[in-house]
Amino acid sequence: AQKVTQAQTEISVVEKEDVTLDCVYETRDTTYYLFWYKQPPSGELVFLIRRNSFDEQNEISGRYSWNFQKSTSSFNFTITASQVVDSAVYFCALSEKEMWGAQKLVFGQGTRLTINP
Amino acid sequence: EAGVAQSPRYKIIEKRQSVAFWCNPISGHATLYWYQQILGQGPKLLIQFQNNGVVDDSQLPKDRFSAERLKGVDSTLKIQPAKLEDSAVYLCASSLASHRSSTDTQYFGPGTRLTVL
């Protein structure tokens, strides 16, 4: 069965600090997809990134970067020079590809990130 | 491009009452999902539609929950009768999910926050 674990329930840092959110997953499939979503106080889940299991290249997008390591089944998310606007709950999710393209997401418990000015 | 629309944003009812939520997906998106997010947890999939057909409703409590997507566009999720433990945010998501697509991303609406008293 698929499972996603985000061991950090809450993280609080001071603005401009770097912060890493951990995500560990379990799956028996060789083809799968990993996602990160951001949920600000407004409640809407905002898509951040999708990574497939065959692409272990790390990715950087502005202040955000993601480190995917199949050997440890981890897909960690780092925010560099954090800002108050980064305060939100962040979810890691896993999906195995369905035959017709759609994906069934299994979410972790989420990490509440608070950036203090 | 308009995002996923949901209404109402908030609903307060007493236990044993009925309630319905509405979702309008992104135009052209074939797949529609309903998730339940209990406070402090990640979203959990309730039901998944491909056009107007149900693909997965294995986690839908069918004795009280029902959902439909009659014309393959917007969808309604109903709870009848509601219980205290149904208090949660109900999120709707949609995705393109074409059989020709090797990847797929779900986009979420703002959710409906249900409080059952």
Q: Oligomer, anyone?
A: heterodimer
User: What share of the residues of chain A does DSSP label as strand, in percent?
Assistant: over 45%
Q: Please tell me how large the radius of gyration of chain A is.
A: 14 Å
Provide mean pLDDT of chain B, rounded.
91
Q: What structural category characterises the helix and strand content of chain B?
A: mainly beta
User: What kind of sheet is the major sheet of chain A?
Assistant: 6 strands, mixed
Structural class of chain A: mainly beta
How much strand of chain B? over 45%
What's the total number of strands of chain A? 12
What pattern of helices and strands is seen along the backbone of chain B? EEEEEEEEEEE
Terminal-residue CA separation of chain B: 37 Å
Encode the helix/strand succession of chain A as letters.
Answer: EEEEEEEEEEEE
Main sheet: strands, sense, barrel of chain B: 7 strands, mixed
- Tally the helices of chain A: 0
What is the element layout, followed by pairings?
The complex is a heterodimer of chains A (117) and B (117).
Chain A: E1 3-5, E2 10-14, E3 19-21, E4 24-26, E5 32-39, E6 46-52, E7 59-61, E8 64-69, E9 74-79, E10 88-97, E11 103-107, E12 111-116
Chain B: E1 5-7, E2 10-13, E3 19-24, E4 31-37, E5 44-50, E6 53-56, E7 65-68, E8 75-79, E9 88-95, E10 107-108, E11 112-116
Parallel strand pairs in B: 2-11
Antiparallel strand pairs in B: 1-3, 3-8, 4-5, 4-9, 5-6, 7-8, 9-10, 9-11
Describe this structure in words.
- The complex is a heterodimer of chains A (117) and B (117).
- Chain A is mostly beta strands.
- Chain A is 0% helix and 56% strand.
- In chain A, the strands form three sheets. In chain A, strands 2, 5, 6, 10, 11 and 12 form a six-stranded mixed β-sheet that branches. Chain A has a four-stranded antiparallel β-sheet with strand order 3-9-8-7, with no helix packed on it. In chain A, strands 1-4 form a two-stranded antiparallel sheet.
- The radius of gyration of chain A is 14 Å and the shape is globular.
- In chain B, 0% of the residues lie in helices and 47% in strands.
- Chain B has strands at residues 5-7, 10-13, 19-24, 31-37, 44-50, 53-56, 65-68, 75-79, 88-95, 107-108, 112-116.
- The N and C termini of chain B lie far apart (37 Å).
- The A-B interface holds A 4, 33, 35, 37, 42-47, 50, 52, 91, 93, 97-110 and B 30-31, 33, 40-45, 48, 50, 55-56, 89, 91, 93, 95-111, 113.
